[in-house]
User: Fold Protein SPEC3 from Diatraea saccharalis.
Amino acid sequence: MANLQVEGVSPSPSPQLSRKAKVMITTDFMKKDTDVEEDLEDNRKKLDSSLVEHTSMMKGAIPVLPIVLAYFCLICNLLIPGLGTVLSGMFCVCFGIPRFGVYDGAKHRIGSLVINLVVGCGQLFTVLFCLVGWGWSIWWGVIMLKISRKYRKLKAEEAAAEAEAAPPVTANNHTRA
Assistant:
């Protein structure tokens, strides 16, 4: 069995000293684990809090998509009710960001896919009731488009703020005061 030397603690048959050494080692490992967890939290993709949907899981499943995909989903919803909604769920897995919370994750993406599949099927089957599903489908596509435009606007404002904060660079890469 390997002997463990801790500074300030000499090996002794006393059970108290061995407990202290174990506590010191355990807290050191725990500290390293929490540091790693904090670093992981900072690197996750973060969504602006104004885009997060707090009132409904179903509305939260409407993803933030690139503007071109949002238009595509709206057109698909116009042609075949529910098709654009189902496609938006699939696009969310690869390109989009679900709006369940500020941070993006695999559970949120899969949840958005499942909810959009259910909603898309609901939109398709409720077309039989006086075209309710078609209106619902178009409304869903318009919401996707509004969210995408808002996200694009927020990103443009963020990029403009970063450009203002950066120091000016001259032709020879030296700043002059």
The first helix runs from residue 15 to 43. Residues 14-40 have pLDDT under 50 and may be disordered. The helical segments are 15-43, 57-60, 67-79, 83-94, 106-125, 132-165. The chain has two domains: 17-45, 49-165.
